[in-house]
C-alpha cells in the first residue's frame, strides 16, 4: 500500500499548545492585537501590532472580507415533559425567512438544521418551546445531536433570536452564563465592526476581521487599498475535527455564500490589472477559491494539482506563472449558493495572494488551509516561533499576515 506524502498525514499537523495560550478575551482595543507577518518571498518573520497592518500590505491590493454577523443562535428551552433543552440553530436565519411559509394566524414555519441537547431524550414529533413565540418540532434525529426540525415563530425571527438567544462562542472560550459583563463584552467584540445585520446567520465569527476598527478601514482606503465584502454564513463545521488519517479523505460541511455584483466587479477589475488580492480570514479565502472554481472550471483545471512536493525552483516558477495566467483570465460573476471547498497542501489557491488570519487549532481544517497557502513546514515553524514569542491563539488571539 502506498504511503501518503507527509503533507497528507493528519498527524503531521500537531503541535503542543499550552492551554494558557488560548485567548479567553480580546485585546483591550481591537487593533492592539499583535501581528506576525510571514513573508514567503523573503522567508522572513516580522512582528508588530495589527494597527501597523498598512505598513505591510501591498499598496494597490484589494482586501476582501466576510461581512456575515454572528447570530445569537444558542437557545434554551423545555422539552415536552418539562426537562431543560439546549438548541443551536445551524441554518442561517436569512435563509429560513426567505423560504418560510406563513399561516393565516401569522405563524411562520420552515425546516432547519440544529444541534439539540439532550437529543437522545427527544422523539420525532416532540415540540420544544423556547418562548410563546418560538418553538421547534423534531422531524428527524441524526448523529452527534444533529437534528432536522421545523421551526415555528411569530413576528420577526431575527428580533426573537436577539431577545432569546446567546452567542455560540467556540468551546475553547469558557463563559459562565451568569456573568452579564462578559456577555455584554462578547456581544460587542465577537462581531466585526463591518458585520451587517441583514447578514446575521453565522454560528462563529470570521475572527480575522475582529481586529479591524472603523479608523483602520478608513486609513486603508485613504492609502489606496480597496475594500470589498462577501458573505459566508460560518457553520458549525468550522469546529468539526478532521478524523481521517489521510487529510484528502475529509469532507467539508456545505455553507451558504454570497458574492454581490459590486464585489464581483471589484474582483474582475483587480485580477485584470494584476493587483494582489488579500483575503481577510479563511472564510473569505474559501469563498474566493470556491467561486473561482465554479465560474472558471476550465481555467482552474489548468493548474489543478494534488502533489505537495515541488521538485525544484524552476518547477515552482512554472506553477506560479500558470496560476498567474489563469487568474488574469478569470471571470467573476455574482454568486449565491453553497460551498464546501477543502483547501489543504496539494491544492492551489488561484485567487488569494495573501491572507490575514489568526493562529489556528492543531489538525484543524483552518491550519490545513493556511498550510496550503504557505506550506506545512513553514507554517508550523512560524507557529513554533509565535509560541516562543508569546503570541496568543484562536478566536480572541493575535493575528498573522501571510504574503
Describe the overall structure.
The protein has 403 residues and is of the alpha/beta class. It folds into 2 domains: 6-69 and 190-402, QueA-like (3-Layer(aba) Sandwich), CATH 3.40.1780; 73-165, QueA-like (Thrombin, subunit H, Beta Barrel), CATH 2.40.10.240. 26% of the residues lie in helices and 24% in strands. It contains 10 helices and 18 strands. A hairpin with a 4-residue loop joins strand 1 and strand 2 (44-49). Helix 9 (365-374) crosses helix 10. It is globular and about 65 Å long.
Low-pLDDT residue spans: 309-313
- What is the tally of helical segments? 10
Fill in the CATH topology of the largest domain. Answer: QueA-like
Strands of the widest sheet, in order across it, are 2-1-18-17-15-3-13-14-16
Strands, count: 18
Oligomerization status of the protein chains: single chain
- What is the typical, i.e. mean, pLDDT? 92
Can you identify the CATH class of the largest domain? Alpha Beta
Distance between the termini: 38 Å
Structural class based on helices, strands and sheet pairing: alpha/beta
- Our count of domains comes out at 2
- Portion of residues in beta strands equals 15-25%
Specify the CATH homologous superfamily of the largest domain: QueA-like
What's the overall geometry? Answer: globular
Q: Largest beta sheet, briefly?
A: 9 strands, mixed
Instruction: Using the 3D structure, state the CATH architecture of the largest domain.
Output: 3-Layer(aba) Sandwich
Order of helices and strands: EEEEEEHEEEEEHHEHEEHEHHHEEHHE
CA-based gyration radius: 22 Å
